């Protein structure tokens, strides 16, 4: 429809023109990340030396191997130490004998070949069982 045709017609024609106004700016948000609240992971030891724990209790969470598994302690894929049996937790500091032929050991313990290296080990000493066994004589 051309404009000349509208002017030449005898009938009154109303022309509706719609204007769409787009936003020229984004919504007024902050340009800096000032309200970003990152929650901490709370890694570290969860159970202290001398406490009684049930089987499956998490003893320590860690990113790098700071604590090592000892007696009756499991080592998770993400470095988590957990109790495999119920008992008393004992944390010991023991001498560590690394395999010096391994490249990872050479890289991480470079310059410490003649030194004593000590590591912290988590151990779970199981509770003693009852001594109420009844022995049956063999016939």
From TrEMBL:
Subcellular location: Mitochondrion
GO molecular function: structural constituent of ribosome
Keyword entries, A-Z: Mitochondrion, Ribonucleoprotein, Ribosomal protein, Transit peptide
A GO BP annotation: translation
InterPro entries per UniProt: Ribosomal_bL27 (IPR001684)
Gene3D superfamilies: 2.40.50.100
Keyword Transit peptide: yes
Predominant cellular place of this UniProt entry's protein: mitochondrion
Top-level taxon of the source organism: Eukaryota
Listed GO CC annotations: mitochondrial inner membrane; mitochondrial large ribosomal subunit
Similarity comment text for this entry: Belongs to the bacterial ribosomal protein bL27 family.
Protein name: Large ribosomal subunit protein bL27m
